[in-house]
Amino acid sequence: xxxxxxxxxxRIGARRELKFAQEAFWKGQISEEELQITGAxxxxxxxxxxxxxxxxxxxxxxxxxxxxxxxxxxxxxxERVGDTGGSELDRYFRVARGRSGQESSCCGVQAGEMTKxxxxxxxxxxxxxxxxxxxxxxADRLIEQIREARxxxxxxxxxxxxxxxxxxLGKAKDQSNRLLLLELxxxxxxxxxxxxxxxxxxxxxxxxxxxxxxxxxxxxxxxILAYHHLKTSAPNLLVTTxxxxxxxNLQLACELPVAGLHLDAISAxxxxxxxxxxxxxxxQLSLGVINGRNIWRTDLEKTLDWxxxxxxKLGDRLWLAPSCSLLHVPVDLTxxxxxxxxxxxxxxxxxxxxxxxxxxxxxxxxxxAAVRKELAESTLAANSRKTSERVHDxxxxxxxxxxxxxxxxxxxxxxxxxxxxxxxxxxxxxxxTTIGSFPQTRDIRQTRLQFRRGELTEADYTRRxxxxxxxxxxxxxxLGLDVLVHGEAERNDMVEYFGEQLDGYAFSxxxxxxxxxxxxxxxxxxFGDISRPKAMTVEWxxxxxxxxEKPMKGMLTGPVTLLNWSFxxxxxxxxxxxxxxALAIREEVLDLEADGVGIIQIDEAALREGxxxxxxxxxxxxxxxxxxxxxxxxxxxxxxxxxxHMCYSEFNDIIEAIARMDADVITIETSRSDxxxxxxxxxxxxxxxxxxxxxxxxxxxxxxxxxxxSLMVKAAERIPAERLxxxxxxxxxxxxxxxxxxxxxxxxxxxxxxxASLQ
Length: 759
Ligand code: GLN
Ligand code: ZN
Description:
By secondary structure, the protein is an alpha/beta fold. It has 27 helices and 22 strands.
């Protein structure tokens, strides 16, 4: 018999119950006890959802983040949290969210840094280390939840982050070598495992996804040290790896002295046979056979075709699971009553994935005949997806085949173009602009919502949004900005807005996935060939341009960002899908140009985060991602100025690819790095125009013109002044008008002073 389990279940709840409870608690509307009850209810419900499994995960539930939970379990809290009073949960949220001096009676506390969990869109709180960090076990939360699961009749399998990955995920604040802490960490892990054993735990899931990344000799050695230290501990350890191939770490992973290994068979299908061969005969092999981070239904017969021989070989040693924790998919497809039924039949959310797992295990245990109906349904769905006209559009295929290398090529090189553009646009030195969005007020949100619900006619809706555009343009004119934007009031989200207008995209109602803390995102579903039935932004931009003599920037989301922030079809390579998106955006760019728009910005906020986990795969990704951007952007005439925007602050390692995009102007986030970030651009001699952000839009602080001027002076030490633009770090949609107006006033004043100093 195969054993079935999951690596984790989404914790937010099918209706985002956790989010609403967290936020109510933070606002003081519910008590800690009420929040705890919501947590316990969700855990109970989620274990019930998983009742068919042989083991349920315990410890995957979290009030904010599983990595922060681990820091608490190990007693590794930043010193600044200290003994500032309050309950443990108070302290927990203090690290998670920070706390300002005003909010609490005592001093302010800075929130823990947040960063992306491997290559997913989930963000974790980075553990902080110092040379003097000491660990101390606090297993209460885990033990309590083990009791809870058992009292409800489940076999608990605690889930913890392994010691090496825990160190790997963190940051040494004093530049010390955090690996040196391993020696101190291991006894605490031993103690934890002993405690779990004392509570009758048989198996512990130890997550070590760092094994799918590039590890140097010290980190590899750390794995050996760690698991030799832990091998005497009583419970059986299942070391889990996910999100990628083990590659050169495969032997290391197979030989760790533990009782079992989990391999992500979705991202590493070609490693299954090798691991099955290499794994010593006393070890269990857990295979992640269902995609835990995408929403497509599994083709079960196809899976069985390769899985049955593995089962024959391994017998009872085989375990089945989704590839990774189900944290990265929405909870339940049955809530989706508005999705097109054909498209819905191709999907599986967390609960449906458990059903698939169950079907697979029954097929292995009792033969395919035992699940004939389920298999037939799965095959039917797979075939319908393969042949559906909704997915496959011959016209798109033809256009893709017609792509030639010249499509991504501007007419002339940058120096020639920029001269023509300057002649036409007549902008001053240090031109000022913004990144696109202006404050999204309550009114705007209300207007969009009413329109969506059918409570507003299209004409009324258009009029209201136009009023907002008027306000934006008037404010920008009054401020004296040089290149204006329309403000994006019609957009709820920079991906959804375009997805809704493109063919090949579908939208769920409840397909929420946790991004961090209480923040959830609902990625659009890119299911089929992409095409653009009609222009998406032209009318808004035309209207905005009609209100001013100043140049109005067209505003688009780029193909790579549309791809990286969607659930993407898995029946063709991502690069193919990205090319289709590129062609659709290209059409929009050309329509804008034909309408007389002289400056077009194509945002690629998510380009960097699509980088593969392994360095050796970067070039391949960058090659097709940059090509897609070039196809989207570069069909325009020389006189049309292309801008791109990226809101992150690491460019050193991809600067060459950024230069290959060949945008006339790139605006980036730099205000918090004190312009040091521009060193990458200087070192590379980046040739085109740059707008380094001078206003930190994440903060309510309003910069004065002197701060901005001095940032720009620093920028001018690195980049020739005639190639510099002056702009905020990112869009202004999360800020208030009262903050934005004075900040931009400072920005414009600073630009004027800089111009004066050039003369
Ligand atoms: N144009 C978008 C805006 O201003 C860009 C957002 C982003 O880069 N994340 O909101
Ligand atoms: Zn941005």
